[in-house]
Every structure is written in C-alpha cells, then in structure tokens.
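S.,

As promised, the inosine-5'-diphosphate run. Input:
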Amino acid sequence: METTFVLLKPSCVQRQLIGEVLNRFERRGLRISGMKMMQLSDEILREHYAHLVDRPFFPSLAASMQASPVVALAISGVDAVQVVRTMTGVTNGREAAPGTIRGDYSMSNQQNIVHASDSTSNAAIELARFFRPEEIFDYTSGMQGYIYGEGECK
Ligand code: IDP
Ligand code: MG
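Predicted complex:
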C-alpha cells in the first residue's frame, strides 16, 4: 500500500466538483485516508510550488490557488502515486485524455482541478507538508478482498 497526496484546487471547489472527483477515487478502489479543507498561505504555496516560483506565471498561479479554500487528500492504494497521476491526466486540461479528471473537467493549463504527487518521494514530502501524522488514518477497507486479488495487496 502506498499513500499519495492530492489537492482539490479552487477550480474544483468553486465549480462544485468536490463530490464528483472524490467519487472517482472511491469508485476506482482507492481509499481516502485523510481529508481536510484549508486556505493556502503564501508560505505553503511557495514550498509546494518551489519548482515554479521563478516562472512569470507564478503570481497568477498563486492567486488562482488562493481564490477559495482547497481540499487536501491523502489517498491510499497499491501503486497509488502512479494510479492517481494517470487518473489526473497531463497538466493542460485541453490536452488531457478524455476519461482523466483534467480531460473531463478542465479547459485550462492552470485551472486544472487537481494536484497529484508525481513520485513516491514527493508524496511523502507533500503529505508531511499538509497533514499532521494523526490526520492520516490507516484502516482497512471492508471491500479490500474485492478490490485486490489474493497476494496483490502488500
Ligand atoms: P502538474 O500539476 O501536472 O504536476 P506542474 O508542472 O507541476 O504540473 O505545475 C504545477 C501547476 O502549475 C499546474 O498544475 C498548473 O496549475 C500550473 N501551471 C503549470 N504550467 C503553467 C503555465 O504555463 N501557465 C499557468 N499555470 C501553469
Ligand atoms: Mg507537479
């Protein structure tokens, strides 16, 4: 089992798509192991998007991420990082494949509904940035035996 970090961006919250996007993760068989609504500070945004702070679009990106509260999620499953990244689709919603979250709900390179960790090491860093340890819950889904085959769920 692996846990990844997802942020439902203001483009998701404002468009009232929280339930719809959560439903996709749950229906896939992923487990929600942490969830909270929060308003992003300048400080956490600069850390989270440290690779983009020097880009000309950063002020606009920061404003879009602070336009409303966001929902931070810890999502668990076998290979959860890669599975969730694939479900998310490429950055630009106009180029994202239909069937992905961005490909189904976004027309934008910036207002692209979700953030998802891009590696297991970044997932660990991002989970620690947004959640205290006691806010992430390790429990077993009652449906686990029907979500994974025998021996598959390590
Ligand atoms: P990712 O979200 O697909 O991992 P990153 O390159 O890490 O993509 O960029 C983080 C976020 O920054 C994107 O999801 C998007 O909201 C925003 N972003 C990336 N490139 C641009 C751009 O060229 N213009 C405006 N916003 C951008
Ligand atoms: Mg990224």
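The CA atoms of residues 21 and 92 lie 17 Å apart. The chain has eight helices and four strands.

- D.
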